Amino acid sequence: MAARIMNLPKHGLCHLMRTSALARHYAGSTGSASPPQFTTLSVDDKTGIATLTLNRPPANALNAAFMGEIARSIKELEKSKCRGLILTSSSERIFCAGLDLKECYQAEASHLQGIWVALQNLWHTLYSTPLITVALINGHTVAGGGMLALSSEYRIMLPNFKIGINETMVGLAVPMWLIDTYLNVIPNRRVAEWDLTASRIYKSEHALKAGLVDELAASKEQGLERAVAFISSYPKHSLVARAITKRQFREKDLKNFEDNRQHDLEIFLSNIQKPNVQSYLGEYLESLKKKA
Ligand SMILES: CCCCCC/C=C\CC(=O)SCCNC(=O)CCNC(=O)[C@H](O)C(C)(C)COP(=O)(O)OP(=O)(O)OC[C@H]1O[C@@H](n2cnc3c(N)ncnc32)[C@H](O)[C@@H]1OP(=O)(O)O
Fold it and tell me: Which domains does the chain have, with CATH numbers?
């Protein structure tokens, strides 16, 4: 396999910017350059398929630097000759545990802004990319991790893991763009509403039945083979038309998001800083620690 590891540029978050300026500043921006810290990227030159491996132990929890790195890799791949992207994890247990809750607890408003804008940008970049995207979910994936999986076009999951969007359980409302993303996969509005209001978490086998994932694979190796097969099933001559068609399906959600980007940031900042949400976050973090 003709594979290469790419070094891609890094983010440069300025935590001192005011809310509105910040949202404007980061709209369409994924930051400036420096070597990757939390991901590895390999590209197979023969197939044009890239594999981006999330590597921020122990839980691939998303902080601003990590999210900026993922988004920048996607943007770089779009400029290259790549046709497809496989997202996977270096951990054998966790694909992604969502936002880094430790960084959301008792944090400065400017830090929270940086996290949320990075999440918005990552969602926008992944959801809108013309690349063929596959999430190879080789571990638990919840909340922001669920967002990564659901924003991809195809999901292959290993058995006995959990997937879902549990924001309400953490005391946070699910943003509209994430509801739209969920509906793109589970178009039954009643099921989607129930899942998201109840913070429903599916086991792999049930997620397959519900249509939340597309295939189960017995191992990561088998999952990678299936992901390559999925991406390769699109003939070369169809790629431009395919990308335009994908964009058309997702355009309304992307526009809704752009129209409400600032408002979405304000809602997050107001919710996450409420004393009851912060106090619940503290207890939740304690409960995660006690499990160990
Ligand atoms: C206002 C609008 C809000 C809209 C929100 C839209 C989008 C995103 C929001 C979010 O993402 S909120 C994040 C919510 N995430 C969670 O609730 C996940 C919590 N974690 C788990 O449920 C479990 O850890 C797991 C992912 C199911 C894995 O379970 P497992 O038993 O395998 O591992 P643990 O022992 O629980 O965890 C290992 C290790 O990782 C630390 N950790 C886990 N999750 C997080 C996290 N989200 N942030 C920071 N750290 C996390 C956990 O504390 C353990 O650490 P150590 O004790 O080993 O140091």
Answer: 3-221+238-291 (3.90.226.10)
Q: What is the complex's ipTM, to 2 decimals?
A: 0.94
Q: Active site includes 153?
A: no
Instruction: Compute the half-sphere exposure of residue 215: CA atoms within 13 Å on the CB side of its CA.
Output: 18
The number of beta carbons lying within 10 Å of the beta carbon of residue 53 is 18
Could you read off the pLDDT of 52-109 as tens digits, one per residue? Answer: 999 999 999 999 999 999 999 999 999 998 999 999 999 999 999 999 999 999 999 9
48, two tokens: 């044009």
Look at residue 237 and tell me whether its pLDDT is greater than 70.
yes
Question: Quick check: helix, strand or coil at residue 4?
Answer: strand
Instruction: Please state, in angstroms and rounded to a whole number, the distance separating the CA atoms of residues 202 and 211.
Output: 11
- Cβ contacts of residue 221 below 8 Å, gap of 6+? none
Active site residue 136: no
Ligand 1, atom 12: closest residue by C-alpha: 99
pTM for this model (two decimals): 0.91
Q: Which of 288, 290, 291 should be mutated for ligand 1, with most atoms under 8 A from CB?
A: 288
* Catalytic annotation present for 167: yes
Atom 52, ligand 1: residue with shortest CA distance = 288
pLDDT tens-digit map of 205-219: 999 999 999 999 999
Q: Is the CB of 291 under 6 A from ligand 1?
A: yes
The closest residue, in CA terms, to atom 24 on ligand 1 is 97
Is position 225 annotated as part of the catalytic site? no
